[in-house]
Amino acid sequence: MRVTDVEVIPISHRLPEGRGLGDARGFGRDRATTLIRVETDDGETGWGEAFAPGSVVAPVVDEFFRDAVVGMDPFDVRRLAEDSYTDPYHFGGSVFVQSALSGIDVALWDLVGKATGKPVHRLLGGRERETLTAYASTMYFTEEDRPIAEPIEEAVEEGFAAAKIKIGTGVDSDVERVRAAREVLGDDARLMVDINGNYRPRQAIRTIKAIEEFDVTWVEEPVPPENLSGYREVKSRVDVPIAAGEAHYGRFEFKRLVDDRTVDVVQPNLGRCGGLTEANRIADMATTENVAVRPHIWNSAVGLAAAVQFAASVSDYPHTRNVPDPMMVEFDRSENPLRDEILTTPFDPTGGEVSVPQGPGLGVDVDEDAVERYRADR
């Protein structure tokens, strides 16, 4: 089996006027990402996602990856990540090279799974897992004027017992939002908060101390991702777990987070971190140092499928069944047809669980007619 073609497919969807949503940094109406479709000489197709604009991914694939990938055996997939750091030299750690690598890498793993008849999580060494705990990513800042607790109420009605909400616009607002979420979720549910890097260290410390009484499972990106000294300052001053990783790329950046004990939870995004190969190495590093791993997901259904397969492969170390700390996957509750419409059988988080596909590769079937509807380069 040899690769014969790599196709870059940008897809996008625009929310209606007045329906923009976002985080503490601002609103947006556009959802966009890039699918990677890899074909082989035996007629098989593998799918991956590069969580970056297609207008950037396409030239990066052409410049740095196409010649190496066309003609390769998909079973050599691990080599691709290694080569990305040495050829192109000095470019391998950049976000766009890692994003393009991610999409190709996941597509190659999908092909390997289809060739062996195994789901990716088993190929990565994970034990058999049929379900994962889903947490609702919700309570965004929106252009619409609606009660702040309404999205959490909807999540609870769907059966979620864990949720992550957006904060980061000031202590008073942060406390109001966290209190409202906790009251709706109840005392036993897991509640995470996401600041999206909108604070300086002292601001983050003040907010985290103010919301600590609400039993927060983790605080995500309290300061900008590049502010490692800020992360260390925050972590040394608070007693709530700190999470980060969606804006970090490749195992060497994650190694700094882990080695310095900068965070308690690493969150690789499978469309940006270097794909399944790098995510697997990141998970090994993190669990070796007793740092938790929980993938970040704000992607299309293909990136979600990759994240679910990866999450199902991650070790529970050091926990046993006597410590209830289930592997959780993020499930965005905003409107996103790129997640809900491009698979023949979409993921369903109803009841607060996501089934781990047991079919070969990513275990999902892409609806190519739906992909064509959302193509952004037509």
Automatic annotation (TrEMBL):
GO terms for molecular function: hydro-lyase activity; magnesium ion binding. GO terms for biological process: amino acid catabolic process; carbohydrate catabolic process. Its cofactor is Mg(2+). Keywords: Magnesium, Metal-binding. The keyword Cell membrane does not apply. Residues 148-241 form the Mandelate racemase/muconate lactonizing enzyme C-terminal domain. Gene3D superfamilies: Enolase-like C-terminal domain (3.20.20.120), Enolase-like, N-terminal domain (3.30.390.10). Residues 341-378 are annotated as: Disordered. This is Mandelate racemase. It comes from Halogeometricum pallidum JCM 14848. The lineage of its organism: Archaea, Methanobacteriati, Methanobacteriota, Stenosarchaea group, Halobacteria.
